[in-house]
């Protein structure tokens, strides 16, 4: 039996709104090493459209952007009743700037310059809310996902995952058997920045199936016709 309602599982992909290329690539690399995928937007306008298009888990928002203050983006989200967790980056550490950020609806702030370790810790803390699906350790029917190591484990067997495969399996595990749509899987795996060929998802899922089999994980990645994909215990899927 396959549950028919697509789950709003949260991906491990975040939006970074930052116009400084060096800082952006530093954050991309730092969070990437923690298994978190990053899409960077250099303007408020690009960020707004990106946030409407893809189900990001979180946004990191700089204040000084070419087309305005990052606070206006957070205000716009909140005005649209969008509760996406937002971490504000600011060069200003004055009390009134922090208060302004939190008043605008930011969930946390980090003054520049910052250590990438601290940013990673803050991002993880925000992504763990709400607790039911943003847990650090992802376990599903004995399959454990280790984002920091880009691998998955079953009993004593462990296998490494390519970046897109990691994002796909995280989303499938968080969905916990519910059907996940193709568009949601593609968004989690590739975001907005990379060109995706029509069969890229099928190729990546094919590799994931082989890797699940290689570590004897008792799970089946089921194609639910016209709906999407579901990760189910092998005995339930048979
Ligand atoms: Ca800036």
Name the features.
Arc Repressor Mutant, subunit A, 5-stranded parallel sheet, binds calcium ion, disordered N terminus, 2 domains, 4-stranded antiparallel sheet, Rossmann fold, alpha/beta, 238 residues, elongated
Provide an overview of this structure:
By secondary structure, the chain is of the alpha/beta class. The chain is built from nine helices and 13 strands. It has two domains: 13-128, Rossmann fold (3-Layer(aba) Sandwich), CATH 3.40.50.2300; 138-237, Winged helix-like DNA-binding domain superfamily/Winged helix DNA-binding domain (Arc Repressor Mutant, subunit A, Orthogonal Bundle). The strands form four sheets. It has a five-stranded parallel sheet, with helices on both faces. Strands 8-9-10-11 form a four-stranded antiparallel sheet, covered by helices on one side. Strand 4 and strand 5 form a beta hairpin. It binds calcium ion (CA).
Topology:
Elements: E1 13-17, H1 21-32, E2 37-41, H2 44-53, E3 59-62, E4 64-65, E5 68-69, H3 70-79, E6 86-90, H4 95-103, E7 108-111, H5 116-127, E8 138-140, E9 143-146, E10 151-154, E11 157-160, H6 163-175, H7 182-190, H8 200-214, E12 219-224, E13 228-233, H9 234-237
Parallel strand pairs: 1-2, 1-3, 3-6, 6-7
Antiparallel strand pairs: 4-5, 8-9, 9-10, 10-11, 12-13
Helix pairs in contact: 1-5, 6-7, 6-8
The protein binds calcium ion.
Residues 19-20, 62, 64-65 line the site of calcium ion.
């Amino acid at each position: 039996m396959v549950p028919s309602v697509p789950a709003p599982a949260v991906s491990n992909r975040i939006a970074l709104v930052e116009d400084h290329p060096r800082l952006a690539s530093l954050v991309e690399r730092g969070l990437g090493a923690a298994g978190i995928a990053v899409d960077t937007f250099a303007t408020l306008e690009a960020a707004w459209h990106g946030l409407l298009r893809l189900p990001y888990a979180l946004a990191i928002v700089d204040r000084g952007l070419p087309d305005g203050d990052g606070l206006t983006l957070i205000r716009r989200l909140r005005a649209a009743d969008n509760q996406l967790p937002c971490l504000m980056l600011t060069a200003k550490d004055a009390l009134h700037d922090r208060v302004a950020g939190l008043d605008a609806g930011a969930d946390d702030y980090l003054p520049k310059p910052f250590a990438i370790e601290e940013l990673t810790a803050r991002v993880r803390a925000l992504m763990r809310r709400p607790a039911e699906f943003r847990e650090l350790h992802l376990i599903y029917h004995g399959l454990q996902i280790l984002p920091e190591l880009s691998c998955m484990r079953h009993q004593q067997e462990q296998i490494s995952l390519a970046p897109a495969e990691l994002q796909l399996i995280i989303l499938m595990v968080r969905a916990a058997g519910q059907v996940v749509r193709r568009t949601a899987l593609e968004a989690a795996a590739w975001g907005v920045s990379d060109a995706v060929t029509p069969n890229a998802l099928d190729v990546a899922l094919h590799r994931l199936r082989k890797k699940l089999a290689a570590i004897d994980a008792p799970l089946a990645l089921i194609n639910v016709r016209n709906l999407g994909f579901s990760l189910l215990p092998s005995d339930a899927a048979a």
